Amino acid sequence: MFTYETSVKLHDTDAAGLLFFAHQFTLAHDAYELFMESIGESFDKIINRSDYLLAIVHAEADFKKPLFSGDHLTINLTPQHLGNTSFTLIYDLRNTDGVSVGTVRTVHVCIDKQTRKKKPLPEELRKALLGRHQ
Amino acid sequence: MFTYETSVKLHDTDAAGLLFFAHQFTLAHDAYELFMESIGESFDKIINRSDYLLAIVHAEADFKKPLFSGDHLTINLTPQHLGNTSFTLIYDLRNTDGVSVGTVRTVHVCIDKQTRKKKPLPEELRKALLGRHQ
Amino acid sequence: MFTYETSVKLHDTDAAGLLFFAHQFTLAHDAYELFMESIGESFDKIINRSDYLLAIVHAEADFKKPLFSGDHLTINLTPQHLGNTSFTLIYDLRNTDGVSVGTVRTVHVCIDKQTRKKKPLPEELRKALLGRHQ
Amino acid sequence: MFTYETSVKLHDTDAAGLLFFAHQFTLAHDAYELFMESIGESFDKIINRSDYLLAIVHAEADFKKPLFSGDHLTINLTPQHLGNTSFTLIYDLRNTDGVSVGTVRTVHVCIDKQTRKKKPLPEELRKALLGRHQ
Question: If DSSP states are collapsed to H, E and C, what string results for D70-122?
């Protein structure tokens, strides 16, 4: 499990006064970005210095509690369903009281940049995901 | 069915060169916003001059084709599962060739602003959704 | 002068109920993107099929009137200060009453992708800008 | 001076591979939000439990160096031009080498929520700004 601490910023909210729903996906993706950096697979490396990309093919979220500007969030990221060419990430968002306020799930597929076909996950990434597998 | 024409803007993309996944939700929500305006239930009215709000409790998306800055999109919105206090919207995103490049699904629950409890959907909204029900 | 019609979306606002200030720059940039497309210089072409890029080196905005979700906007874009390697764009945002609600100014410099040095503006772009020069 | 540590996220970049210019304003605003929280004037308090708001009437930025996804940023915020009803904030963005990569300036006016007229800055805010005044 990888943990990311953040907070809801004013620009994450909308005129209804709460977190705009799509930004829950963005905050979860920030956790994913820092997780990848922590295992030596930064997005900068994947985008500019690798032969593969990790395409998100499915994403979903549940919204359990309203979130306001300034709310602190702990996002716990857990890999699931680690396959040959794909993996799933589960994100649990908790407030300062430790209450789960929302969840996100993203499904990622490894794609060859040249052929645009699925390809096996890089071994380092597989190991890092396995090490944190639920 | 309600149709919204838009295009992928540069700020919808990221350094991987494609639409950032969370923005597919935002583009779908733009269609929802214009749909609501078209039936006389603008967000401004709901937020500032009504006793209810429509909370998104679940959202999911499939990403079928890469989308690039400048790509034109037709988003078709269809109501589904119209209940007493909730409804679901399905969005189908198509490119200029008419090919489905992605889908979004959002589940909305009507909440009383005072009590924060579920309440029946306003009759006008129910009728408008029913008129476009799949 | 190039004109772009749009509206303030819910995700452009924040919990204070108004347009989040940074999004005025984004809306102006959308006008710039469509202007470039209209003169055959789409961002997709510049990013993927050209030897130059147009870097924004300065941007500023004045905020004259509050803008709310659903507000319709007419953005008028006018080139100014067309130099050898740079140009300035002025954007005037008007509401449905024709009242100016805000302005944006962006300064763009043409950069060689290889050397990262300034280079003269492409002739087609220069002509297009000159044709609409104030 | 107030210091905020952050990093450029993938969603802050666009298909040109760099930070999308408008997001430099957003990152600076995040620093402002955390500064306000640090002095007991959180946006949540101002929006929901005060008789005033702080409207941004002008914003400008210089973009000195390209910023990429994953780049760490130190944002130093300094108040300037503290007036009776307004103040200016200067933000200096530095990379991990301590090099200034960009600046932002925002001008804020204190507005009475009822009358929508300018009003004097709250005393606590004035003191906090003065304590950090350049």
Answer: CCEEEEEEEEECCCCCEEEEEEEEECCCCCEEEEEEEEEEEEECCCCCECCCC
Handedness of CA B9, B15, B17, B20 (dihedral sign): negative
Would you place residue C131 in the very low, low, confident or very high pLDDT band (cuts 50, 70, 90)? confident
| DSSP calls for A40-80 | T--HHHHHHS-SEEEEEEEEEEEE-S---TT-EEEEEEEEE
Q: Do D70 and A30 touch (CB under 8 A)?
A: no
State the DSSP code for A19: B
For C14-127, strand residue ranges (E) read: 52-63, 72-80, 86-94, 100-112
Position C134 scores a pLDDT of: 53
Beta bridge pairs of residue B62: A58, B103
Instruction: Give the phi and the psi of residue D118 in degrees, each rounded to 5.
Output: -60, 145
Q: Give the H or E element holding residue B100.
A: strand B100-112
- Widest CA span of chain B, in angstroms? 47
Domain around D14: 2-131
- Tell me the CATH number at C52: 3.10.129.10
Rounded to 5 degrees, φ, ψ at B50 are -145, 165
Does the pTM of the predicted model rise above 0.90? yes
Q: Is D16 on the interface with C (CB under 8 A)?
A: yes
How many whole angstroms separate alpha carbon B134 and alpha carbon D74?
52
Residue matched to tokens 């597919």: B24
Beta-carbon contacts below 8 Å between B and D:
32
**What's the length of chain A?**
134
Question: Which residues, at least 6 apart from A26, have a Cβ–Cβ distance to it below 8 Å?
Answer: A12, B20, B22, D9, D11
Among chain D residues, CA nearest to A5: D6
Question: Encoding tokens for residue B125?
Answer: 């909204």
Q: How confident is the model at residue D65 (pLDDT cuts 50, 70, 90)?
A: very high
- Contacting residues of C for D23, CB less than 8 Å apart: 22
Q: Looking at the 3D structure of chain A, how many domains does it have?
A: 1
Model pLDDT for residues C66-105, shown as the tens digit of each residue: 999 999 999 999 999 899 999 999 999 999 999 999 999 9
Residue C29 has pLDDT above 60, yes or no: yes
Angle at B21 between CA B17 and CA B26, to 5 degrees: 115
Query: What would the two tokens of residue C52 be?
Result: 């130059």
CA distance D82 to D92: 18
Q: Is D30 a catalytic residue?
A: no
Q: Is D56 within 8 Å of D106 (Cβ atoms)?
A: yes
Sequence-distant (6+) residues with CB within 8 A of C54 are C46, C108, C109, C110, C111
